[in-house]
Write a structure and sequence with these properties.
mainly alpha; single chain; globular; 6 helices
Length: 108
């Protein structure tokens, strides 16, 4: 599902170009850091590796990442931020709808 969101809303295919997505994520995080601290981060390089976290970890990692990137005008202007935020909402809805407690709750 994240592939569809990224292709439709940001034009990045994470399957065909995972390193490109990783670079875009790094760049957005760096812009957020600069907006917060008005200085360049100490680290200027990263090593890309593919991981496949389970859904709860993915959701928590998205929460953390988007929190880190919520600086300056990034949440309002960056299309990648908006795309990831929409995906996070969709993933959260999917997870909640499959919980037994949700299934057991009354439809009122």
């Amino acid at each position: 599902m994240v592939q569809i969101f990224l292709i439709l809303f940001h034009g990045i295919d994470p399957v065909a170009n995972p390193a490109g997505l990783a670079q875009a994520l790094w760049n957005m995080n760096e812009r957020a850091y600069n907006a917060r601290y008005s200085e360049s981060p100490v680290l200027t390089m990263f090593q890309f590796r593919t991981v496949f976290p389970e859904r709860f970890q993915l959701l928590k990692s998205l929460d953390c990442y988007l929190y880190q990137c919520a600086e300056g005008d990034i949440p309002e202007t960056d299309s990648l931020y908006k795309t990831l935020d929409k995906y996070r909402e969709s993933l959260r809805d999917e997870i909640i709808s499959e919980l037994p407690e949700y299934a057991a709750a009354k439809w009122e």
